[in-house]
Design a protein that fits this description.
Length: 373
Amino acid sequence: MKINKPPMGWNSWNTFAENIDEQLILDSADALIEKGLLDAGYNYVVIDDCWALRERGKDGKIVPDPKKFPNGMRSLADKLHAKGLKFGMYSCSGLMTCAQYPSSLDREWIDAQSFAEWGVDFLKYDYCYRPANRKGEESYRAMGLALANSGRDILFSACSWGADKTHEWIRTTGADMWRSTGDIFDNWNSIKSLIEQQFDRLPFGGKGCFNDMDMLVIGMHGKGHVGLGGCTETEYKTHFAAWCMLQSPLMIGCDLRSADDFTLSLLKNSVLIGIDQDEKCAQTYRLGGDEAPVLVRALENGDVAIGLFNLADGEKHAWLTLNDIGIGVNSGKTLELTDCWTGEKSIVKNGYVGSRLAPHSSIVYRGKIVDAK
Ligand code: GLA
């Protein structure tokens, strides 16, 4: 499928894991719409693992659990499509899914057909229980080809966690996005580690196959399947800022039905979403020292996105000079910065952008090139 921007949506796993059913998916879809998240760009509703019966049917097809999905998947897809949403599902490339439900190994073509018949628009494809005699790239290529021939435009979301040098082969599989790191958990150590692991994988992302840093934990507040500890508001802000600066897909993972105002304001921040969704898809680059990285990305309209981060447990000074990003002293230019949280505008003086940052905090600016006075 041809996508020009990282996908945005909601996925059931982080909060609900196996506790899913049609009503929950529809209620979550309604909440997504009522709370303005569809308008903000979140248009995929994805059912993760645990939707199927443990055994395939006699015809070899995978069977949705009738207790959880009594009306079947086609009916659910139709209901989601009628709300203006896209429908995502999940399978796995190994012998079983991670939660030990049937996977699509050697059944790629029959399953891709089922997904197409059900009206699926997005397939997340996991990596648990890979058999020793099968390389990851072979399994992902098989599903990529089966989806491309399924008769339906289905976004292929690869989820092999960056294992087995995924970055070297993932673009050969036709995947539209790839999980570049392991699973996220709702705590600061997990977020910090996912950000740091991303730095040497940046050349492999961008248009064609986006680096996926995993589903967001914003708004989980320690509750739900991966809610191990929870984060402070500052940490959730840094989480969202980093995912947007690094151009990750934005798949919400909290319970939307009870999402609070802080969570919604974060998830709907239009300056950050604009940076995440910028169609130029230039590679983000990193300046700055250990634990105080500065991330920079050139944007489609000539603006520059600048993120100052403090990943340390103590205060840090994060900074850059305009010279570092191609605006030399002889250019006659400077930046007009817009702070993505406050909307406050300021003009860069003396070619310096920086701040002393509290632990785990961050600032993101969208910078517009203007004449230096
Ligand atoms: C793996 C994936 C997760 C989730 C679970 C489901 O751990 O990385 O995102 O899909 O499997 O079992």
